[in-house]
Amino acid sequence: MKNEAFSESIEMYLKTVSELADSEDLVPISALAERLGVSTVSATEMVHRLKKQDLLEHLPYKGVSLTVHGGRRACRVIRRHRLWERFLVDYLGLPWEKVHDYACRLEHATDTAVTEALAIFLDNPRTCPHGNPIPSPDGEMPDISDIPLIQMQPGDRGIISRIHPESILLLDYLAGRDIRPDQPVEFEEIAPFNGPLMVKIGEQTHALGQEIAAHIFVNCEDEVRNDEIA
After folding, report:
1. Which one of 42, 99, 221, 228 has the lowest number of neighbouring Cβ atoms within 10 Å?
2. CA 99 to CA 108: how far, in whole Å?
3. Burial of residue 61 (number of CB atoms within 10 Å: 0-12, 13-18, 19+)
4. Could you tell me the strand order of the sheet in which 204-208 lies?
5. CA separation for the pair 215, 132 (Å, rounded)
6. DSSP conformational letter for 215
7. pTM
8. pLDDT digits (tens, 9 = 90+) for 68-82
9. For residue 28, what is the DSSP state?
10. pLDDT more than 90, % of the chain
11. 72-110 per-residue burial string, b: 16 or more CB within 10 A, e: under 16
């Protein structure tokens, strides 16, 4: 039981580093600890253990990143998580905003054989219900070309592609305002003094805080048009 708990903890650390990583930037240990709900001291101790296992790289006072081995292992956890989310929404009819929490529990108790049988049953979906890509069985993450809503400019248009990284609080907030992937979005304006973003989503205009806008990713109009031509 102790080994199983430790293995689950390893998976949570690797998955969280993958979620927090932006391009090739390092993830600060403080951000990792906050996301996992543990102390910085506990996070630092685990980082050192994972570094010894060649799962993480650690640059003191800068942060951590996944090794090739660690990245593939993280992707396998993410694959299980997102396949379960797809199943829970598509076949059990559970609410879009609730399945992230359920999948977090299931992802650690699913063997590879079950994961791949689930993928076949679901006809190998490309994304989870929140729009995030599902890694391959080999632990490879598909390329993504969307941008966070906060990087758009007034007048820009596009389609919401995904919500990332997910959290229960964030998904509940968005679900309450019917903001989800595949909806058209138009950036109207940003309020002065780092105020909220005024964004038209579907037929309704929303005032979104910048932190929330950083979690909503968009395929901009030019990118959508190019994909259609291709």
Report:
1. 228
2. 15
3. exposed
4. 147-148, 216-220, 157-163, 184-190, 197-201, 204-208
5. 12
6. T
7. 0.88
8. 999 999 999 999 999
9. P
10. 81
11. bbbbbbbbbbbbbbbbbbeeeeeebbbbbebbbebbbeb
Three-class secondary structure of residue 157 per DSSP:
strand
Residues 12-35: tens digit of each pLDDT = 999 999 999 865 589 999 999 999
Domain 147-229 - what CATH class? mainly beta
Segment 82-137, tens digit of pLDDT: 999 999 999 999 999 999 999 999 998 899 999 999 999 999 999 999 999 999 99
Could you give phi then psi for residue 113, rounded to 5 degrees? -60, -40
CATH class of segment(s) 2-66:
mainly alpha
**Domain 71-143 carries which CATH code?**
1.10.10.10
Domain pair 2-66 / 71-143, same fold: yes
